Amino acid sequence: YAWDANEEYLFKAMVAFAMRRYSSKSTTQISNVLLCNVTDRVSFWFVVTDSSKNVTTVPGSVVEAAIRMNRNRINSAFLLSDKTLQFLKITSTLSPPVEPSTPVWLIVFGVVLCLIVAGIVFLIVSGIQKHKKKNKESTERENLEEKVEVTVTLENGLPCEVLDLKAGHINGVFPADDERFTSL
Q1: From start to end of the chain, where are the E strands?
Q2: Cα→Cα distances 173→16, 105, 179, Å
Q3: Is the pTM of this model over 0.85?
Q4: N or C terminus of the chain: which is more exposed, having fewer CB within 10 Å?
């Protein structure tokens, strides 16, 4: 974008802001930031003078520390990033790692808990199905045994009933057990 006097003023103000923020006792003014050798490619160097002694420059290590501490604010003021706004001799700051809104351990815990619950539900449902199947088979066997059909067979041309072995058959010719003895 176009670098003009307004942009220079903003840069000086941001550096003065960084210096004031770095050392709370400092009273650095915009006039204490001097830009030198400004080119069309927006390349320049700058110095910061001491406000109490307008001639003395602030040590480079103090300026570097102030800019490093407030680099994000300077980048934001110019809508730039560490890749587009470079300060020579000042290493770019790494952006903090992205923190997920939900902790990783909570996600893993939820997945494991869901698997355990799904396994328990599966075991319960399969047990109920096996129990129903077993009951159904046993009732079918009982029904089959009860449904032994009485078939009619013909002997000498007369119909005869086949004995039901399970229920037994009472022969009417012989007296019942309670009538074994005749009364006197």
Answers
A1: 33-36, 45-48, 152-155, 158-161
A2: 129, 86, 12
A3: no
A4: C
